[in-house]
């Protein structure tokens, strides 16, 4: 008879960590929300104007991406959006329905190819594993731009002079880390044209006013936020780690691309996100702000709310439109 495992840590609904390092990510929350974390199989045929496929970026490495190609005939080269999913570094995958639903829409409306990276997850693979995966994808795109390798959709349709980084929640943290890393390197013939952190998980060990006063949401509670980061950051780190607390960090000499920082008025971490915005402006970096009013963290990933709540639907439309406009203008 196998010995019974003991629970070491748990994030309600999302994740249970057992002794011995076993992690169970079976959804245990309300069943009506489960479909949003169900994987969507790739389809090479166009459905609602977008085709998708998954591929390994290197034959000898377990590193995958999902590619979204919009059906835009005779449009020439298309900008490339390099996407990093959220989940507090601990949960979610690039093929989850919530991302499929959002990024097929963005590919279609922005007229861009989306490349979404399958990131390794903590606590089995703590940070910087996910950042390393993100960087590997960027170098893969550089090899494609340099014609060292070939991928039919990207090689024939992608504009490697207009590559944009985008990430949801903890994926927004990865966007900033990758933009900083790329600023010190020669990516020619690839050009980073912009960086779009959406509701990044920027915060400090000391709780902000918004953490204490803003309402919790299905996509972010304080318990979820703090536990995920405890499991995701390097062992012994606090929330003051530079990955989660880039506010006040020196940006001197860094040639960062233009940023579009997307925040939500009711997000628990909006105060520290705004602190980051002000620091970027003080450092003389190009940064625009897109505020979604009356909604909370990652609201646009919630298909149920988009369908039944006019406010969520309207703000999702404005967010997608704002991101599309930023891409067209850079």
Automatic annotation (TrEMBL):
<dbReference type="GO" id="GO:0016787">
    <property type="term" value="F:hydrolase activity"/>
</dbReference>
<feature type="domain" description="Alpha/beta hydrolase fold-3">
    <location>
        <begin position="81"/>
        <end position="300"/>
    </location>
</feature>
<comment type="similarity">
    <text>Belongs to the 'GDXG' lipolytic enzyme family.</text>
</comment>
<dbReference type="Pfam" id="PF07859">
    <property type="entry name" value="Abhydrolase_3"/>
</dbReference>
<dbReference type="InterPro" id="IPR029058">
    <property type="entry name" value="AB_hydrolase_fold"/>
</dbReference>
<protein>
    <recommendedName>
        <fullName>Alpha/beta hydrolase fold-3 domain-containing protein</fullName>
    </recommendedName>
</protein>
<dbReference type="InterPro" id="IPR013094">
    <property type="entry name" value="AB_hydrolase_3"/>
</dbReference>
<dbReference type="InterPro" id="IPR050466">
    <property type="entry name" value="Carboxylest/Gibb_receptor"/>
</dbReference>
């Amino acid at each position: 008879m196998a010995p019974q495992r003991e629970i070491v840590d748990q994030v309600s609904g999302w994740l249970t960590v057992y002794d011995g390092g076993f992690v169970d990510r079976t959804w245990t929350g309300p069943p009506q929300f489960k479909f949003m974390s169900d994987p969507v199989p790739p389809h090479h045929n166009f459905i609602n104007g977008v085709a998708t496929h998954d591929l390994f970026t290197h034959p000898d490495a377990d590193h995958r991406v999902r590619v979204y190609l919009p059906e835009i005939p005779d449009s020439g080269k298309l900008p490339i959006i390099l996407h990093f999913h959220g989940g507090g570094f601990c949960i979610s995958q690039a093929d989850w329905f919530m991302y499929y639903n959002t990024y097929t829409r963005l590919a279609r409306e922005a007229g861009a190819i989306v490349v979404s990276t399958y990131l390794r997850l903590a606590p089995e693979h703590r940070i910087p594993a996910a950042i390393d995966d993100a960087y590997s994808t960027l170098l893969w795109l550089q090899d494609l731009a340099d014609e060292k390798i070939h991928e039919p959709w990207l090689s024939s349709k992608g504009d490697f002079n207009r590559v944009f980084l985008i990430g949801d929640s903890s994926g927004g943290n990865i966007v900033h880390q990758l933009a900083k890393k790329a600023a010190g390197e020669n990516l020619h013939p690839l050009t980073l044209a912009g960086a779009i952190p959406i509701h990044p998980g920027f915060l400090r060990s000391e709780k902000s006013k918004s953490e204490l006063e803003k309402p919790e949401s299905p996509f972010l509670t304080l318990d979820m936020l703090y536990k995920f980061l405890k499991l995701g950051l390097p062992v012994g780190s606090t929330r003051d780690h530079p990955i989660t607390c880039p506010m006040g960090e020196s940006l001197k000499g860094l040639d960062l691309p233009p940023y579009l920082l997307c925040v939500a008025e009711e997000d628990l971490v909006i105060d520290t996100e705004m602190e980051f915005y002000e620091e970027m402006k003080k450092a003389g970096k190009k940064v625009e702000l897109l505020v979604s009013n009356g909604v909370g963290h990652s609201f646009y990933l919630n298909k149920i709310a988009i369908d039944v709540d006019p406010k969520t639907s309207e703000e999702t439309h404005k967010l997608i439109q704002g991101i599309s406009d930023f891409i067209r203008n850079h």
